[in-house]
Amino acid sequence: MFTRRHLLKSGAALAASGLALPAIGGTGKIRIGYVTPQSGPLSAFSEADNFMTAQFLDVARSQGLDVEVIVKDSQSNPNRAAEVARELITRNEVNLILLASTPETTNPVCTIAEAEAIPVISSVAPWQPWFIGQQGNPGDPGSWQPFDYVYHAFWGLEDNVGAFLRMWESAQTNRKVGALWPNDGDGNAWASDVGMPRAAAAAGFALTDAGRYQNLSDDFSAQINVFKRAGCEIVTGIPIPPDFTTFWTQARQQGFTPKFVSIAKALLFPESVAALGDLGHNLSCELYWSPAFPYKSSLTGDSAADLAGKFSEAAKRQWTQPVGFTHALFELAADAIKRADDPTDADTLAEAIAATSLDAVVGNVGWGKDNVPEFARKNVAKTPLVGGQWRRKDDGSFELVIVENGNAPEIPLGGSLELLG
To answer: Where do the structural domains in the chain lie, given as residue ranges?
Structure first.
């Protein structure tokens, strides 16, 4: 395929020989593409997009940054994510792409951007399905290669699994766990050796895998019956929000009453939990950002609590975890653009991203640290993760309380883990 990268290389060769091609990216204004699932079943991840994009543009202008943000909706669809990536690169001629929220959005965009030599900063997908999922042969670690232009900032499966296991260790159960894993990038990663099974077995938990299911299923009776027969007192998984609502409602209707339910992804959002009413009380999840985090924005100086408050005031709704990482993506973009000698040059901007060491509203972000395996160290920067539990308040609203902080003891606890029921 004759890609934009080939054209750039051809242009450099022609320039060296005294000829020249028309400039592709131009100079002056920096064009930033921004891709998230703004519609479809993953749209809850994008609730903060409008507020954070507007805030970034205001701050950028006040700081003398000449930037433009071109927003694209992946529609929660990998094929659409790939399409908008091509549009941003060939039609909009962006200099940088920011993107977030699950491998179904991050991976197609990053794969195309890497091939086309366009720098990317991505987030809100565990690093294993992001890095491994883009390899030519995900099953052969010896073949895995680092990337030149795409960089990812988030936590890994080991952090989420560790937080869940530590929560379960804190109470008496029969240590039997039912696993609810969809047939998608996240579900397959959690079900693999780098996910939950090996770690759970090492910690003395017996895992019952009910098998992969398709997203947007309307009947989870088969999985519920498997968990009941196995005597599972704990349930874990990584369903999309509507699927967990269906599963948990049917589980209680069918008399399945585990002591712990720790669900990644689906329970990140207050609306998803509020839709369950009383059934949402004491459900637990990973917590990767909240107003209680002790970090500040490098862009605005706002604390995590300040940022959450401003979002809630503007959006007229409760803060949500992606608020912090949506803001952090623009922090990282601004920082790299300021440090790059020529941010319109892809190689120069990619080098600036790789050299990042930024205290952001989600914690310190820097690539190349030894808390990431060597094979992914160049492209992955890990961020803090703790465990949270939803508590229903007297007015019917829900509060997400930090109940586990083994990965990040600097983040204060807000309470102790409680059993369901």
So the answer is: 4-148+292-381, 158-288+385-404
